[in-house]
Write a structure and sequence with these properties.
By secondary structure, the chain is an alpha/beta fold. The protein contains eight helices and eight strands, in the order ββαβαβαβααβαβαβα. The chain has one domain: Alpha-Beta Barrel (TIM Barrel), CATH 3.20.20. The radius of gyration is 17 Å and the shape is globular.
Length: 235
């Protein structure tokens, strides 16, 4: 993601396809906060200093020390903190307001499809509706606090959801995403029409879109990423 350095806070992925993961019993593995903080410190010490840090690798809200991780990044002078998330946790309690208050200015929402298909693919009942509610809660919290925050999306494709790529992009656009990355690492050439449809859906909705992975020649990018201005954090 342009302007961000990627920092893994664990392993296990976010909103994964349950069919692809069938037979795997591996639970998420979280990195210790001290290791993460040391890596963030190295990121902040680089020249030029990055605009922000993207925390990824596992569902961030499942990490027991997430508040401390975000706070450490902010204390080091990182202006923009992004979480790659399924957004479900943001719909619960005061999580949305708390994340924003802690310094999260950007959420990168992982979506496999729309509505029931997202639940079916992830194997988590109600996740699609929780995602919608979580995104709305985060946006409402930002508006109430007078803060600027950004929403982007990521659609990881596999043989089980490639035909639903355009539906996922349309849902993210409806939620207000300014940009969407379509992950094509596991896409076959015979399925490229679905990728084209997803890119066209983004264009029709005024959403910046690009591909990441195989077939990178498909990528449609602009020189200025839209979240640069949208995700400015107030000190």
């Amino acid at each position: 993601m342009i302007g961000y350095r990627r920092v893994l806070i664990g392993e296990g992925g976010t909103a994964r396809c349950s069919a692809c993961m069938r037979g795997s019993t591996a639970a998420p593995v979280f990195r210790p906060i001290d290791d993460i903080v040391r890596e963030v410190a190295l990121v902040g010490g680089e020249t030029p200093v990055p605009d922000g840090v993207l925390f990824t690798g596992c569902e961030p809200f499942s990490h027991p020390q997430l508040p401390g991780i975000v706070d450490a990044a902010r204390q080091m002078g990182i202006r923009r903190v992004c979480l790659r998330t399924d957004a479900g946790a943001l719909s619960k309690g005061d999580n949305a307001r708390g994340a924003l208050a802690a310094g999260v200015t950007h959420i990168d929402v992982v979506l496999l499809a729309d509505s029931e298909d997202h639940d079916r693919l992830t194997g988590i009942r109600g996740l699609a509706s929780a995602c919608v509610a979580g995104v709305r809660a985060f946006k409402e919290a930002a508006e109430a606090a007078g803060r600027r925050a950004a929403l982007t999306g990521r659609v990881p494709l596999c043989r089980h959801n490639v035909h639903l790529a355009a539906h996922a992009v349309a849902r993210l656009a409806a939620l207000g995403a300014v940009a969407v990355c379509i992950e094509t690492t596991h896409v076959r050439s015979v399925d490229l029409t679905h990728v084209y449809a997803a890119l066209d859906t983004a264009a029709v909705n005024g959403v910046h879109a690009w591909t990441d992975g195989s077939f990178e020649a498909l990528s449609r990018t602009s020189s200025i990423a839209p979240w640069y201005e949208a995700a400015v954090s107030h000190p």
